[in-house]
Structures are given as C-alpha cells and as structure tokens.
Amino acid sequence: MKPPRWANWLLETFGHPDTKEEVQGDLFELYAYWVARVGERKARWRYIRSVLKLLRPLAKRKPVVDYSTPFYLHPDMLRNYVKIAWRNLIRNKAFSAINISGLALGMAASLLIFLWIQDELSVGTQYTNGSNLYRVMENEIADGRIVTDEDTPGILTDELKKQFPEVVHAAGLSSKEGHILTVGNTIARQTGCYAGSDWFKMYSIQLLAGTPDVALNAPNNLAISRKLAETYFGDAQSALGKSIRFDNATDYQVTAVFENLPHNSLDKYEFLLNWDNYLKHNPWLTVWENGGPDTRLELRPDADPAKVNAKLKTFLKGRNKDISATFNIELFLQPETEAYLYSNFKNGQRDGGRIEYVRLFIIVAVFLLLIAGINFMNLATARSAKRAREVGVRKVVGAERSSLIGQFMGEALLLTIIALELAVALVSLLLPVFNQLTDKQLTLPFNQPFFWLLLTGLLLVTGGLAGSYPALFLSSLNPVRILKGTLRFSAGAQLFRRGLVVFQFVLSMLMIVGTVVVYRQLQYIQTKNLGYDRENLISIPGVGEVAGKYPTFKQELLQLPGIQSVTHMMTSPLENGNTTDGVHWEGKDPTLAIQFNNTVVGYDFAKTFKVKLLQGRDFSPAFGTDSSNYLINQAAAKRIGYKDPVGQPLTFGNQPGKIVGVMEDFHFQSLHVAIRPLIIRLGEAWWPNNILVRTQPGQTKQALASIEALCRKLNSRLPFSYSFVDADYQKLYKSETVVGTLSTIFACLAIFIACLGLFGLAAFTAEQRTKEIGVRKVLGASVASIVALLSTDFLKLIMIAVVTASPIAWYVMNRWLQNFAYKIDISWWVFALAGLLAIGIALLTISFQSIKAALMNPVKSLRSE
After folding, report:
1. Residue 124 backbone dihedrals phi, psi, to 5 degrees
2. pLDDT tens sequence across 83-141
3. What residues does each domain of the chain span?
4. What is the distance between the alpha carbons of residues 463 and 452, in angstroms, rounded to a whole number?
5. pTM, whole model, 2 decimals?
6. Backbone φ, ψ for residue 414 (5° rounding)
7. Four-point Cα dihedral 159, 160, 162, 168, nearest 10
8. Can you tell me whether residue 188 is helix, strand or coil?
9. Which residues pair with 101 in a beta bridge?
10. CA dist 413 to 89, 97, 416, 419, 423, Å?
C-alpha cells in the first residue's frame, strides 16, 4: 500500500536530501490514515485532493535545486519568509495591533526607566579625578547608638593637609544658603556656599574667567556661575574684577566665573565664597568639639584609602576634649562617587540610599519587559492553530526545524522592530512630562553609542524572549497530525502557557501591592500629626533690615489684620540637625555623653507653632531670666530623669539655668528619624535666620499682601520671598512622592499589558473549544453557563498568582518601610484589595472572549462534522 507516484516526484522536486526519508515516512503515514478511514479506493482521490489543496500556493514557485546553500538560507526562501511575515502582519490587523502595542508600551516604559537609571548613576561622577575624591564622614558613638553624618569641624581641612601626606587637596563646604546679590539696579536672591581655596583644584569645573589658584584664595573673593555673570554683567569676561553687594551690607569681588553646573552635579550652587570668611563669621567652627560643614579630600592616585581610614579613625582623640570612654567620634572616608546613591547609614555601616530606588526600577523595567514578552507568547500561541497547516506543508516539502525557527523568530523581530520604533516615538512625546515629574533633564541621546547599544539590546532581548516559545513550539509540530486535522496540545504545553499567565499576574500583583503601600505611607506622612500645626504657617528668610530690625518688624506685623503670632528660629523648623552633648543636670553620670538636638528661638515660639505644653510655660518677656532658661521636649525630660522637671536646674555648655516648660514631642526632622531629645534656648536678640508668622485661617492671602508691603518698606531694594511650612514639609518626601507616582503608572501599565496576554490565552482557549461549545449549545447550555465554564480556569490561575505574590510583596514592602522611623502597618486588606483588583480586571478581560465564544452560532462551529 503506497501513495500515488506523484508524491515521490513532489519529494524529489521540493524536498531536501537530508530529510527525504523523514518526509517520505510522513507521506506514507498520511496515506495510511486515509485508507483506514475511507478505504483504499476513496483514499487515493481524497489524499490527492487534500494535498493539492494544501500545496497550491507552492505551485508557482520554482523548484529548489541548488543544494549548495542550506535550504533555509536560500535567497528565495529568505524573501519568502519576509513576504509571509509582512502578509501575516497585514492580514491579522487586530492581532498585530495588540502585539505591537503591548511590546511598544513595555519597551517605552523600560526605556524611560533606563534613561532615569543612567542619569541617577551619573550623579557626582562627572569629575575627571572623581576616583580620588572623598568625603570625610563621622560616626558619633554615644548613648548606645551610632549616628553617621557629614558634620565635621571647620578647621579639619587644614589639619588633614598637614598630617596626611596622602592628601593632595582638601576643602570645606558649607550648607547652601540664600543671599541677596545686588549690582546696580539688578537685585535677586541667589543660593551659594562657602568653600575652601582648593575647591577648583579638586573638582574639574570649567572656569570661563579666572584661575583655580586665585578664585577663592582671599576673604573678599567670589566665584560666580555663567548664569549669574550673564544676569549681572552680560558675560563672563565682563564680570571678572567687578563687585557684587551681598545682603545690602558687604561687597565682594568676582575673581572667577565657572560654567553652569550640570544637572547631574551633586553640589548645587550659583556662587562660592572664601572659606576663611566663613570661619570668621562662625568662630564656633574653629573649635574641635563643634561640627557643621562638609570636608572634601583629594588623595594621591597611589594612596590606599583603607590605610587613610585606619589613621582617621582615631584622629580626633586628643583634639576633641569631649571624647571619653562613653563618647567617641570616628572619622572615615566615603568615595565621592558613592555619596549620592549610598547616603544612608545604620549603626555606622552603609545601608543603602537612592541606590534602593535604582534597584527597584531596574526590577520594574525587567518586569515590564517580561510581561510584554509573555503577552506576545500567549497571543502567538493563540494563533498557532491558524499557522499549523503552513508549518505542516513546509515540513512536508522539506523545511528543516531550524529554518522554521528562523522564520518565526524573524517574524517576532519584525514586530519588535516596529514596536521599538513606536516606543522611541512615544518616549520622545512623554519625556517632557517625565522630566517634570522626576525633576530631571533627560533627553534621547542619539549621538551616544551607549544609547544605540541599549536599543539593540532591547530589540534582541525583547524579540528573542517574545519569539522563542512560539518558534520552538510551532516548529516542533508533527506534519502528519497537522494535515490530518487532529492537532492537539499536550498537557505540558498547556501547563507552560498557564504558568506564563500566573507569572505575569504575580509580577502585576507585586506592583499593585507596592503601589498601595507606597500610597498609604505617603498619605500617612502627609496627614500625620507632627505635634504642631504646620497649616497657615509662613517662613520668611531673615535678611536685610527685616532681620536687623526684627523687634520693630515683629511689632508692626502683629498690628496687621490676619496675623496671629510671630516668632523666629535659628534652624529650619523641619530640619534641625544641630546636636550637642554639653547638657548637664543634677544627678547626671559625668561619664555619660548624651546627644541633644538644640535650637534658639524667639518669644511666642510655642504659641506660634501651636506646640502643646505639658508642664510649665513658654518663654515670656515678663520673666527677665528666661534668657538663661530652657524649654525641653518629652524625650529630653525622659532622658534627664527629673520626676517634676519644671523649675529644676539645667546647664547648656557653660550657661546654667532652669527648665521652664516641657513640650509634647513634635517632629523637627524627617519621619525617617525618630524624635530625639530637644533643648530650646531663648534668643530674642539673636539674628533671626527664619522668621515664622502664623496667619488667621482663611486670611492667608490678605495677610501675605500686608507682609509683603511691610517687607518692601524695610527692605526697599530686596525682593520679597517666603515659603509655606506645609509645602516645605512635602518637599522632604519628594523622592518618595516621585516613586509613588511612577509606581502607580507602571503598575497600571503592567496590568494592562498582562490583560492583553490573558486576552490572548482566552482567545486561544475559545478557539480550541469551539466544537465543544457548539455541542453544549445544541444540547441546551445557556450563555451564562458557557461563560462560567471558560472563565473558571482563568480565575483559578489568577488566584494562584495572588496567593503566590502576597508573601513576596509583604517581604519587599516591609523592607522598604524600615527606612521610616514612623510607618504604617501592612494590613491584610491591602492584599485582599490588590487581589480583588487583579481578579476584577482579569474577569472583565476574560468575559469579552468568553461571551463572544458563547454567542457564536453552533451551526457554524459544527458544520465540518
């Protein structure tokens, strides 16, 4: 029993020599199938009719007779693959649109994330000698804990240059401050710092005018940016040697003009002043026991940082008189290139920082690419039945599996190329919005080889991932089973596809839970009672006559309508980092060094801040001795240990006094930090760095207009500036807010792309069970029962994903919350809400295909039977 002779001719003409026996065996098996089914006489005609119908598209093709080139690499076949890929793309518009949009969205989001990550990794790395630059950090070991910060003594730089031969240059840097700069009629508030004379020798900042040796080597020297030079003098060269008046009080000479700092610069300033001038105005910095500014070093290229660290560890012993058996300060170096990404320390050891967000978004980018790739796999598999006969015909005429894999991988790459082009266009449109959201200046760097490598990597990884499974699956199909029309998928293949869906929704569930937790923590931060009322509280910088005539300014403010009370504060009301261990009281262990935060305020502090007094009173002009008395918070009262602290003696430094009031604990730092012991001194006559004004609720707008008029009356030549304390508070958590917004966007995107994949699997299942659905409808099944039948299996998959993702999400988000001293608890309903959301969205997606299949005419699905 053999098939017709023309089958052998077909094999000789179209087949490859290496696969003749295999294809011939398939032909014999197919013929035997028809003989067994309809008899030998009818089998010949049915066999001929069926095979000719399948091979009709190949009738016009010239026989492949050049076997010197592999069959699947022959130019004719390559052109054929391209044509078929393009025709499939055009003919299946819905499939192509879903696939391309899913891939484009995934790649666009990943590309945006990669650009953001590249920018984050570049912060502080732009200096030519960056590998030799270090920051001096200190670990304060006292009271059973280790606090790490950058607040070093102001005279540290000169001493290090003398004592350490490894140090090439050293410079101090103060915190950024705002000053009024005046040249003629041009007046503006600018921000800048004091820096050591070695600053421009250490940092490779381009000088447009002046030299590094002269820029900051004298007390009245001033270096300004190109922006300020153009604002005040027109250009850089015209600015050199000119004078600028500071705060309408002191003149400084421009000795250098530097190029505007790049957006990825870690230190942001518009001008720099001489360091000696800073020490002159702040003599307390010349004492080893006090810290405040940063200290930067440049080591010799051959220097060993570990050896320098070993010597720095005990450097302050013998210099800082406070160091004892119970209190110590150990210095160490942190590379400049790590300062931005690794800014958090715990127990004296590096404990993350911005690098945590970089790692987080790397994972998010990979998640989105995986979800988009899995989506492609599921949609390609859903169409496998339509491509199966094509595969069968190609195998029958001699196509090798490798050629089929190449064909389907090529089609996947074609779709990916189109999706990548759309992704780049989408990123170009979204970059302005993304930059505004993240406070970046990202661009598409088409002129950088790295960017093209990134695009190529995205193309190959995404295309390879998306096309791998469909290519391997379709190329493995048995041609005899295909041409018999008995194509069925193994349990292993079904399990794999379902596993892909579960994996997709596990990733999506992780992102949903993460978004909910971040949102709740941000809400907690924004609504938490800080212990004082930050609403209707205005902060005015103390400059010019407003500060110089503060008592007059305060009295006139209190006469204005809408003003409740006025005070001033030496430090920021939100970021008080001043600490001291020079607090003493009766019964204190003399060997114990306890760190207290401290600040100086004016009268009416508690009234203006609306801080609750638990005992005693606020500072008052009625008590002349209050200049040597103190207010403390609950944490300080607990640490001091007085049973009834009001009226008890307390000494700050060398100034003895008494405790006049105990305030309820309030937050004077970020919620990342637990409330610490706080001691407040009265300094009504001190220079008011921050003037705080509380307005009547609902009258802030009118009060602001009156305050501005009064400020302009006293500072006629200075611009009026102010800020709302509640707005400043929000800025403390800008990074968390950005992360929360991006997480929400990417989580929604992940769910959308995952649902596309679910849509594909639902379509595949409906296609596979078309005849079953037709039989059920003929037997009386309702549309609702059929929808339930098709939906149940998918809902099981989503439930498995929810159960799998929940513990992983809890662990990851619980670790993130450890960055906050005050945080929410992750409740069970967060996972329930995320699960219900995932199930609800999935059910809507599945229902579309299920209802469509259930409404199909059974006659149409059963007519071939």
Report:
1. 80, 10
2. 766 777 777 676 777 778 888 888 898 899 999 998 989 888 888 888 899 999 999 88
3. 1-68, 69-123+355-488, 133-339, 544-717
4. 16
5. 0.78
6. -60, -45
7. -140
8. strand
9. none
10. 12, 15, 5, 9, 14
